[in-house]
Fold this protein.
Amino acid sequence: MIQYKILFFVGFAFLWAWASWIIGLTYLSKGINGTTINQYLTFFFIGVYAPSVSAILTTLYFNGLSETKTLLKKLFIWKVGLKNYLYVIVLPLIFVALAIGLYAVFLGNVGSFDKSGFSSIHKVLWAGLFAGPLAEELGWRGFLLPEFQKKYTPVKSATIIGILWFCWHIPLFWAPFGALVSADNFTILPTLTFLIMVISLSWIGTWLVNNSKGSVLVAILFHLSINASLALLFFPKLNPVFKQVLFLSSIPMILFSIYIGIKTKLNNTTGNNIDETPR
């Protein structure tokens, strides 16, 4: 039954998202203006919630209301230790800060530090919460990860989810935003880099969740922190080249994911199965 559950989840999540985004892209094909962007945004947000909606429907169909409640309770597992919250905040900051340093050394001037960026942090986090982290993580890390870990190691589970996660984004490659390669005439190198970044993030997310009692809240906060790229707020001169900086952040990100993969197997404390019992 595990295979059927996974197939049902993946099929629904892809069908819902891809259909929504393709409809949205048809509006943009008429020309990009205020009206078509708003029409696209409607279908973008409908599609982006596919993983979480699919997780709820799949669990409800295969396991009933009780297990669905257990799934939803993962959103509220917050007693996970201070160090996990520090990882959520500090790791993305370090990745982007190192990327800014690499840009300064090898590519160009990053400009001066602008402390006014502090005033924008809450706005960026609030806006980013609903665009991906809240919409996706109940599906990827709340439902799919423990299902895979019933059969596979955390490393293999995280790798498979990373590949699926990358493929799920494919229609957004032709969109104005939604993936790191969106709105570009994407070529092999950026696309391959994005794939490796997504797999690396899947490894780190798996490691965090496995060491946080299966907390989807931790996964949401980490996803939010990664997407926000808060360190960039303090270097406004980098706004036109922010994608280059984010691609550079893949270097420390990949190295760290390899480190935890080798050292911890992505699962320090919980064994092969995530502890799904809310605390």
Remarks:
- The chain has a mean pLDDT of 93.
- Residues 74-264 form one domain.
- Residues 9 and 57 are 8 Å apart (CA to CA).
- Residues 2-28 form the longest helix (27 residues).
